[in-house]
Amino acid sequence: MSLFLDALQWLAEPTHWSGANGIGTRLGEHVFITLLVVVVAAVIALPVGIAVGHTGRGRTLVVGVLGAARAVPTLGLLTLLGLWLGIGLKAPVIALIILAIPSLLAGAYAGVESANRTVVDAARAVGMSEGQLIRRVELALGAPVIIGGVRAAVLQVIATATLAAYTADVGLGRYLFAGLKTRDYAQMLAGAILVAVLAVLAEILLAMWQRRARRKASPAARERQDSELSGNGSQV
Amino acid sequence: MRKMIRTGIIGLAAMFALAGCGSGDPLDSGESSATGKGEPIVIGSQDYYSSEIISEVYAQALEAEGYSVDRQFRIGQREVYVPELESGDIDLFPEYTGPLLQYWEPDTEARLSDDVYESLKKAAPDGLRVLEQSPATDQDSYTVTKEFAERWGVETIDDLAKVTEPMTMGANSEAEERPNGPKGLKETYGVDVGFTPIEDSGGPLTVKALNDGSIQLAIIYTADPTIAQNKLVSIKDTEGLFLASHVVPLASDNVDQGAEDVINKVSAAMQPEDLLNMNRRSVADQLPASEIAREWLRKADLG
Amino acid sequence: MNWLSHSWPWIFELTARHLALSVPAIVLSVLIAVPLGRLAYRHPRAGGALLSAATLLYAIPALPLLIIIPALFGFSLRSPATIIVALTLYGIALMVRTAADAFNAVPAEVRQAAMAIGHSPRQTFWKVELPLAIPVLISGMRVVVVSTVGLVTIGALVGIASLGTLFTDGFQRGITASVLTGLIATVILALVLDGLVLLLGRIATPWASQHVAIKAQDTTREVSA
């Protein structure tokens, strides 16, 4: 496929790596945005999710709201916020945070809920306080599922952060839009390849983390094929 | 019982699929067969609301004369739709003389209306032709805030050399490489500016960025009502960086003489103020293109 | 609200186009993903590779995919086939894993019991495995529905008309009402289709205590799907 080769050629071109529009800069911006978004979304979503999972209250409400939130197309949110907040990082970051929250929240409450009830009861019987219970038991046992939520969120954000370039001069999405508008499809494809590579790297790292958490949570359990790659969600 | 349910589900799914596929027709790109009054003429427009209004005007005028029209609006930029015109997937496209000439001949020396039009007629590839150009213009212009213009005494583009602080230009991505962007500015006027892409064709985000000071210079089209609305200033192009830019329909060989006459009549009737007014109806009064077009055609006694 | 009062016909037309693009993609995704998921479950080694490929596919941003597909298949960029293929690919990527999990979740004893009664493997699949897998498949399908309806809007960036056009048009003209309407309409459309799928699930599993079965699956599936 000659288009693919053109894209690889574009990536190999040394001038494309340096400068404000260089691959290095754009990659850095993209990673920065992803980290910022996921951390802020986690700070908002994880406590709420843990609370819901632990107390069992508000679950129906949360599931309902999340269902609706997942249905919001990020492009729409982005243009709306762009109209209110102008060019620059604010609009895309807020839109992406809203994108990331559902997966993180769902992961949090599902993780906490998945902790074996018998173990939880036993811990209470032994005299643990609620706080200790959450930290030492529910989070430890639920960690694999929670990390699964993080994986899903990170994947979505990496892929969707390309839209940030619609209203801001930032990220790998710039290659997509510039390439699209000038019909420089090699550039566009090159940008896509970079995003995909970034996503794969993130997946590998998070999968390793998840595997470690799973081993800690249930060292005796056999690893199941299907639980290797859990974690996914809507892209937009 | 279970079998019934299973069949039911498959039936529902099939129904959905059929229902979905059924209404797929309007989206098919037009056929490249010759058009008479029987075959629909495929009219396209740029991904720019003003272009959509002009396309709608031509569409309604043709329909009033009995032609059937297939509207394919908001296609995108020149790099995307010109090939479709050449291949016959689109029959008619309202264009702008200056930028279109520069697309086909980036090094052209023509600047004034008639020169540009004559060169354009010659530059059009086989199978395509430009019809009569309209008096209506929609020109690229470099725009600054009133405050900026007054502070630095900027009235013409050469005056930009007086500005001592670093300047950034905001415009659609494609301007970065085009002759009317920072490269052209440097070549023709020797002025250096940075560039930040804003994908709204001189729309609200561009205006906001100008007012916020995130950019100092923007490319906003002369027929855009927001220039007056926001008290912005278009600075004069004394060295002829920008070509004259009149509305001109680009047609493939599928457009017959009858249709051409209708279109030329409409083009001749459109004045620059008309275009400005129609744009205002769209942006300030928020009316849809179809209504604005109908309104103008009625007033001009053509629809 | 001047914009709104003048634009109803257009909003309806865009909604119809949006549906015309989403529904075939959703149906195709499910029809392709379910057999693939079953394959993945039956042959774990090949299945692992398949699921990895699915994850990778999901990481490709939508815009470039919309450009690659015409280059690969030869249809024009703006033809509905292009975006439907793209949406289907994403839908498959989302659904394959869920499908594999769904078949995995059918207890081995039930399958063995079916065979003990004398069912052929084929009969076992259609009469036992598939019906039992339905609750999980439905929850996966719901995710595909919501994701697909949202993704259609990206097409507006390349001239494919849908509710997403309300975003790009509103953006250019500075009409907030347009963008808001597009957002609300898309969400409503997604929720309506989601509800329909849920209903479908209930019709298809009259034997289960639906609330418990589907709700319980919601927990695990929301995270892993």
Q: What can you tell me about this protein's structure?
A:
The complex is a heterotrimer of chains A (236), B (303) and C (225). Helices cover 75% and strands 0% of the residues of chain A. Chain A contains nine helices and no strands. In chain B, α4 crosses α5 (113-123) and α11 runs antiparallel to α12. Chain C is mostly helical and 225 residues long. Chain C has nine helices and no strands. Chain C has helices at 2-42, 44-59, 62-73, 80-104, 108-117, 121-151, 164-173, 176-204, 210-224. Chain C is elongated, with a radius of gyration of 20 Å.
Q: Can you tag this structure with a few keywords?
A:
heterotrimer; A: 236 residues; mainly alpha; 0% strand; disordered C terminus; C: 225 residues; 84% helix
Set out the fold topology:
The complex is a heterotrimer of chains A (236), B (303) and C (225).
Chain A (H helix, E strand, L loop, with lengths): L1 H11 L10 H33 L3 H12 L3 H12 L4 H25 L2 H10 L3 H31 L12 H9 L3 H33 L19
Chain B lengths: L1 H21 L18 E4 L4 H16 L4 E4 L5 H9 L5 E5 H8 L8 H11 L4 E3 L11 E4 H7 L15 E4 L10 H8 L4 E4 L6 H9 L4 E3 L6 H4 L2 E3 L12 E6 L4 H13 L2 H12 L5 H11 L4
Parallel strand pairs in B: 1-2, 6-7, 6-8
Antiparallel strand pairs in B: 3-10, 4-10, 5-8, 5-9
Chain C lengths: L1 H41 L1 H16 L2 H12 L6 H25 L3 H10 L3 H31 L12 H10 L2 H29 L5 H15 L1
Could you tell me the radius of gyration of chain C in angstroms? 20 Å
Q: How many helices of chain A does DSSP assign?
A: 9
Q: Whole-number radius of gyration of chain A?
A: 20 Å
By DSSP (H or I, 4+ residues per run), the number of helices of chain C equals: 9
> How much of the sequence of chain C is in beta strands?
under 5%
Query: Stretches of chain C where pLDDT falls below 50 for ≥5 residues?
Result: 213-225
Largest sheet of chain C: none
Query: Secondary-structure element sequence of chain C?
Result: HHHHHHHHH
